[in-house]
Amino acid sequence: MEAIAFTDVSKSYGDVLAVDGLDLSVRAGTTVALLGPNGAGKSTSVNMLLGLLRPTRGRVEVLGRSPDEAVARGEVGAMLQSGELIPELTVRETVDFVRRLYPDPLDLDEILAMADLAGLAKRRAGKLSEGQAQRVRFAMAVAGAPELLLLDEPTAAMDVESRLRFWAGMRDYAARGRTVLFATHYLQEADENSDRVVVIARGGVVADGTAAEIKAGVGGQAVHFTLGRQPAAGLDALPGVTAVGIQAGAATLQTTDADATVAALYRGTSLEVRDLRIAGADLEEAFLTLTRES
Ligand SMILES: Nc1ncnc2c1ncn2[C@@H]1O[C@H](COP(=O)(O)OP(=O)(O)OP(=O)(O)O)[C@@H](O)[C@H]1O
Ligand SMILES: [Mg+2]
C-alpha cells in the first residue's frame, strides 16, 4: 500500500514554479527524509499532502485517498514550519485538547513521554522556549495516532540534546508501523533517521535511495539519469566520463569526477536531466553536487 503518491505534480505560485513534475511514492511503514536546500519545494510538497495547497497539475494521493479525505478521517498528523500555540493553556491541556479531536488517539501520558514533555506538562504554552514549543507541536502531530506523520523541519529551533531526544521520539512512533515523512536540510538527520532519502532541488527529485546507497562505494562513481528520447550524442565528451551506457532511456555515465560531469551535464548541455543519481559519492558531496544551482 502506498501511503503517499505524487504523480507528475507541479505547483506554481504566479510565475514561480515551486514543484516541477514531481513523481514520488512512499510505501506505508517507511520513514522518508525529504532533503533539499532552501526553496527546493519541500514545504510546498508537504502542504499539498495536507490539502492546504492544490497542485497546479498532476495528482496527489494520501493513503489511497485525496489529501482532504485522509485529513478529515484523522489519518494524517503534521508539524509545520509555523503554528501558533494558545499561550494560556498548559502543555498538558494543549495536547489533551488536540487528542480529543480524534476518534482513536494515543494515551495522553504516552504522548507526553514520547515528546519528552512529562516535566513540562504544567507549563503554560506562552512560557515555553521555541525548542520546547516545537516538542509540543510534535506531541500535537502524533496525538491522534495518525497513519501518516508529516514533519516540516521539525528540529529547526532545537539544541543538540533536544534534537537527539526528538528523533528518539520520532523513531518510537515510526516503529509502530506508521509512515513518516520529514523535511530537512541536515544530511546527518536524514541519514540517521530515515529508511530512504529523497533529495529534491528546484522542485524535482534529483536522488532517491537509502543514505547508504547514495553514498555507497567511493571508487567507480557512476552518474545515472533518465534521458528519455533525447539524443545521447556528446555525453562521452563530458569531463571525467570514461564510458556511456544507454538502456531503455536510462543513461549511466562512468566517471572519474562525478562533480565535474554533473556540472557539465547541467551547464554544458541543453538536455533535460531527470532522476539524477550518483553512486559512489559521499552523501554530503553528492548532496551539494545534486542540488547546486545550474
Ligand atoms: N506563497 C508563496 N508565494 C510565492 N512563492 C512561494 C510561496 N511559497 C513558496 N514560494 C516559492 O516556492 C519555492 C519553494 O518554496 P518551499 O517553501 O516549498 O521551499 P522549501 O524547500 O520548503 O524551502 P525551506 O528549506 O527554505 O523551507 C521557493 O522558490 C519559494 O520562494
Ligand atoms: Mg520549507
TrEMBL record:
Record's subcellular location: Cell membrane
InterPro entries: AAA+_ATPase (IPR003593), ABC_transporter-like_ATP-bd (IPR003439), ABC_transporter_ATP-binding (IPR050763), P-loop_NTPase (IPR027417)
Membrane topology: Peripheral membrane protein
GO MF terms held by the record: ATP binding; ATP hydrolysis activity
One record GO biological process: response to antibiotic
Keywords of this entry: Antibiotic resistance, ATP-binding, Nucleotide-binding, Transport
GO annotations of cellular component type: plasma membrane
Listed CDD domains: ABC_DR_subfamily_A
UniProt-listed PANTHER family: ABC TRANSPORTER ATP-BINDING PROTEIN
Descriptive protein name: ABC transporter ATP-binding protein
Classification of source organism: Bacteria, Bacillati, Actinomycetota, Actinomycetes, Streptosporangiales
